[in-house]
Design goal:
Chain B: Pfam families: GGDEF, PocR. Chain B: This is Diguanylate cyclase. Chain B: One of its GO terms (molecular function) is diguanylate cyclase activity. The complex is a heterodimer of chains A (122) and B (471). Chain A is mostly helical and 122 residues long. Chain A has one domain (1-114). Chain A has six helices and two strands. In chain A, strands 1-2 form a two-stranded antiparallel sheet. In chain A, helix 2 (29-44) crosses helix 4. The longest helix of chain A has 25 residues, at 3-27. The relative contact order of chain B is 0.07. Chain B folds into three domains: 11-139, Beta-Lactamase (2-Layer Sandwich); 166-312, Beta-Lactamase (2-Layer Sandwich), CATH 3.30.450; 324-468, 2-Layer Sandwich (Alpha-Beta Plaits), CATH 3.30.70. A six-stranded antiparallel β-sheet of chain B has the order 7-6-5-10-9-8, with helices on both faces. The longest helix of chain B is centred in the N-terminal third of the chain and has 48 residues, at 116-163. Chain B has 471 residues and is α+β, with helices and mostly antiparallel strands. In chain B, a hairpin with a 4-residue loop joins strand 3 and strand 4. In chain B, helix 4 (116-163) runs antiparallel to helix 5 (169-184) and helix 5 runs antiparallel to helix 8 (282-314). Classes of the chains: A mainly alpha (122), B alpha+beta (471). Chain A binds chain B through residues 27-28, 30-31, 34-35, 37-38, 41-42, 44-47, 91, 94-95, 97, and chain B through 5, 8-10, 144, 147-148, 151, 154-155, 158, 162, 171, 174-175, 178-179, 181-183, 185-187, 205-207, 210.
Amino acid sequence: MSEIIEKRIGHYETLLREMWTASSKYLGTFSVNLLVERVVWEVSLEYKEIELLQYDQNGISCAKMAARLEENPDLPVEDMFMKFITRYVEILARLLGHERAEEIRKKLDEEFAGDLSASRGE
Amino acid sequence: MHPNLLLNISVRYWQDFQDTLARAMNANVYIFDANGDPFSRFSLPAELCQEVNKGRELRNEKCIDFYRSACGSTEDKDMLTCPYGLKLCAYRLGSYAQKIGYLIVAPAGHTTLMEREEEIAFITKAHNVYRTINEVFNAILERNLLGLRRLELNSIYEISRLMTSIVELDRVLELITNSLIIIYQADLCFVGLREGDKIRVAQGKGVRGNLLIGKEWPLVHPLIERIFSKVEPSSLSIEELKVLPGFTGTDAAPGTEIMVYPLWTALGIVGLLGIAAPVSLGDNGSKNLQIYINFAAVALANATLIRRLEREAETDFLTGFLNRRVLRDVLATELQRAARYGYHLSVIFLDIDDFKVYNDTFGHLAGDVVLQKTAELIKNSIRTTDIACRYGGEEFIIVLPGTKGGDAAKVAERIRKSIEINPFPHRRITASLGVAQAKKNDSVDSLLARADQACYQAKERGKNYLYLDPS
């Protein structure tokens, strides 16, 4: 795998893992997996490749997606992940309340240098 | 659910398809969503529009207003003339049951379609474009709907498995509300459980759903009676629900419909479940949701029953205090905590004086009243963090975390006095109390033994007395 692709996917994989861990603390792994399944389905209506996201009781992995990206480097990964994250946080806010969801979003935003703010068009 | 979710397709890919079709048909095509907002861009440059808008995109407010108004009044298909003189064909997309959006087909070039033959040819072409696009949209809609139903069924399957294996009420409530919000994208979801003659909201999520938690609605309330008068769900507007406590502060959008499901099992009413009515549910979706609700009712009934049994197993029926069996666990935990964090812990042992004589003279029912009243006096004399327990017949234990022996003695004296002055039926009642402070390496048995011994000393000193263990 080329270094750039590896870096791009690695970046999002870390972000998704952090999101998964932070929200499972409040919701439990079953609800978080259901939430991921829901958002994957929604985003897959536009980007089929999101179905390559692997998730189970232990967390999220982007390994299959990275392999796909190797074959199709033109895939708009940023847009796809940002759509995923935006929808995920939207539903999370309904489940946890805006304050706690905002807490999670801010914490992740600090760690990932404004990625989530960008996803909301801020 | 987002209103356009079922039409959630990549606009970029759609635009490519639309542009190719427009070029092949030599007609300009653009699409508006169900609300009359632009969905795609013009497929081909329209000379007149270019003059007005200086580009391909539909940006002119006058045009937008015209299309929005035209779309709103188009029932099936219509022939329109835009504010800049372009003749257009407008079509409603979707079925009668499901409005997807609107299609506008315009000539590719600037023409007034004055010639009759030219007009007929254009209308035929526009109709063909409409049929193609409508077919594609319906196929997308069908595919998306199937995906949603598959997601629902998978979720219901997983949840039903989980719900039948979870017995903790809080977890069942969390699971139900979380799943419904996730699957149906509901803005609000709440569950109320029956407690005697009322419904008490046990869980609420979504838009200010937490404000509903703890609110109580009598079963005889006309609206609640209406909900339980049938087995099917009631569709209630937020305005109708505002007669119930908790809904006055809910800032859900006016007109929001809430589906309220009565939760029944063979044992009777379990409670109710409310969910902001999901869009595009359809017949199959409603059935899936009803299956889910049925599972939820059984899971809630089981969890409620188990919680009640657990509480009854831990609680003394007569006084409502913890029973002797639970006391040992509670005291062991408190001893560990006191040792770990280095705080004090004291125990009061209370024995009602000459209770056997009272019981034998006035009967067991009168004795029960004394026990209940004594428990009430104890409860009124201690903090909420203190733990009271009925130890045996007329014996009570009070555990006081974070309290030194001397302070515990003050509490014990307060209890003794309140019993002494209370007007019990038939005759005056008194109690003897022993107080012991936990020492390093104390066990449950050693601490209770010292408190018991202190109580014995109080009896020895003539009853209606308080004795503090000096060790």
